[in-house]
Amino acid sequence: MNKFGFIKVAAATAEIQVADIEGNTDRIISMAREAIKKGASVCLFSELSICGFSVGDLLWDSLLHRKCEQALERIANEKIEGVVIVGFPARKNGKLYDASAVIANGEILGIVPRRILSRELCRWFSAANDGMDDTIRICKRMVAFSTSLLFNLDGMIFGVEIGDEMAAINAPSQQMVQNGAHVVFCPCARREESNEEQTLCNFTSMNSWRLGCGYILSSAPTTESTTDCLFSGKCLIAQNGGILAESQRFSTSHIIYSDIDIDEIELRRMSNPLIEPSKNNMRVVDIALETKDDTLDRQFSAAPLIDEQNIGAVFTIQQLGLARRIKHTNVKNVVIGISGGLDSTLALLVTCAAFHRLSLDAKGIVAVTMPGFGTTDRTYQNALDLMQQLGVSIREISIRDACLQHFKDISLDANDRGAAYENSQARERTQILMDVANAVSGFVVGTGDLSEASLGWETYNGDHMSMYNVNCSLSKTLVKEVVRWIADNHGNSQISEILHDILTTPISPELLPSKDGEIEQKTENLVGPYELHDFFIYHMMYNHFSPQKTAYLATETFRGRFSKEEIDKWINVFYRRFFSQQYKRSASPDGIRVGKVSLSPRGDWSMPSDAKSSSWLEK
User: Within this chain, do residues 240 and 389 fall inside the same structural domain, yes or no?
Assistant: First the structure.
């Protein structure tokens, strides 16, 4: 595998003709060579691919078995510089088994027989005993013949389960994973039905998710017999619940490729207590091949914290979390600061929806706009217009005079635009919100998001603090998408228009005085693009990748948009700030989790505030 833990695999469907063993073998060899030449380390073919799955009672014919054995020897003698997995009928001790051979380096390294049979297959095959560990004489050599075989290719441990075994309650893949398998290869031949493609995709993705592994499937092609049914030739490559690559339905001959991330699989398992080691130890066969392909066929999402199909669910989870807190505290009023920016806009929309769920009067939402030295007309007017359209109670409290008095109190020159100048404004706003909440017997709804918390781009005991934060596990990019979803689906055209304008407003804390009415302080010019930081957040916190690997993936994913130098610059900013700002997260308020990543110190992210970042930064 390459230095970042990727190993390329291929799933192939050859143009299998029933009982055309020599022709099938020619096509298998040709496609295996093509797959290996394009960087694949393993190439999987379908169930009984050498003779054809629908060969029927010819399975009892001695000539067919002699030809199948010769075919295996031919494939081995080709000495293809990779691993080839093919299916064939294996004879042992007077019984016939549906089996797959694992071939590499001119050797048949092992044969795995199928242990769970469908009713139809029982006509010809015997089920291998669970735990069978034997040898078989084939191609003039003794070869491991076992249901307890795993294979180690350059650190990737894999196993083989066959056909409908993938759908069994006691699927062999479960034992394989419990014995350390990173990847399961499944040669199969499922009959085609109108909904079969979705069923096969569901099985493949679910198995990879449930077992936390890579799962590769190759199905029998359309060139199989159509006497009674059709086979689709579907191929799939999945990892951890996601389909990485799939072939078109009803294609005759094809190869698909993707890169399995062994590093990710191992790191995920370290934090998953549900996969326990098995007491039934399996035998591991080492394969003397090195895999070093550095090209990636796999596509990575540029926005991994956004699930486009479930944006509405994010908004609902936020509402329900806040509604539960309102009901628990038995308040009729809440207080929220509105700036005209993305975060406070979403928090206000969530709060209005929660009040609606509880049949509470929207006037119980005390929305406070607090213009300061950097507030622009655009954000100020958007804040006012949105509050008016939503029918909440509006308060406008300027912080300018209070801050100027505070500057005098602490002997700060008002022209000194340093941290005290900016942070005092954030703390003044928070003090106002807290005191208003006391006055109306309510609590403060927080607005800060996950990206700001990761970077520490928040004022300690300022916008960092609230009684309940509805945005705390939403990244900045996700906040934007939820607001966009609401804007596109809202029944009030005026609200939609306001939201679309907010979406195009530059992100800013607006703490420095503006020039010519334009926003002076643009956050992404200071700390970097949020789409990059959100990418870093996901791969650091969810996948637990190293800085080098995260930067490598970012370079591949954002090619043409951000240079390697830009990515290196901003990932250093990310790690430096992430480590140095942990103390803020250690004192963060309650808030609902909506996705895969959260920084709550109460169970999602545990890290001492004085952890050293030097090892991460030097990479």
Answer: no
